[in-house]
Amino acid sequence: MGNEAILEYAKRIEALAQIGLTYSPNPYDLERYAELKEISFKLMAQVTQLSVEKLQIHFDDKKEYITPKVDVRAVVFNEANQILLVKESADGHWSLPGGWADIGYSPREVAVKEVREETGLEVRSTRLLAVLDKRKHPHPPALEYAYKIFVECLPISGQLGGSFDILDCGWFSSDNIPPLSLERITHEQIDLMFDYRKDPERPVSLD
User: Which of 35, 159, 172, 186 has the fewest Cβ atoms surrounding its Cβ within 10 A?
Assistant: First the structure.
């Protein structure tokens, strides 16, 4: 069994243990759920090189029923059919503008806000392109179980300029895509976005 599979099982064990700790009225079961949680951290530590202590801190604020996180990405093309990408400070590689969804913002609003904050452009969201389960695509193993929402946006005004957590931004053609931040976006997903550009009638992709 590979590290990615072990990590997925460990995250599932952690999620089930947290649900049990949250809802079980039986003190004996609570002890068992706590032990399962510790086992899940030890498994995660083996495959992520993170310490058990860091993993405990990461999951410590998750006291409720565990649900997937939501990653919203804006898909913006210019008139030359080039796609807008941003260079992430976390790894120096490129991704679509976006990030974790914010409380109080709809997916459309998150996409527009992320483009403005990361690139300086004002855009208008037009349609939903895809809702993908991150686990079903060739991203590196990650602690969070996440759904990825891709929202098409049209540029309205503004000039390109980075932000404090973005090193650079620019327009790229399909045959000139820079090294991608695979934790955030894959080559297959970029290709899919270009497919939507070519075919406005293409139906929403849904995992």
Answer: 159
The strand pairing partners of 178, in sequence order, are none
| b/e map 8-43, b = 16+ CB within 10 Å | bebbebbbebbebbeeeeeeeeeeebeebbeebbeb
Beta-ladder partners of 41: none
Domain boundaries, the chain: 3-60, 69-206
Fold of 69-206: Nucleoside Triphosphate Pyrophosphohydrolase (3.90.79)
Strands laid side by side in the 166-172 sheet: 94-95, 83-88, 166-172
**Average pLDDT of the residues of the chain:** 92
Displacement of CA 130 from its chain's centroid (Å): 13
pTM over 0.85: no
Could you tell me where the DSSP H helices lie in the chain? 3-23, 27-48, 52-60, 107-119, 187-198
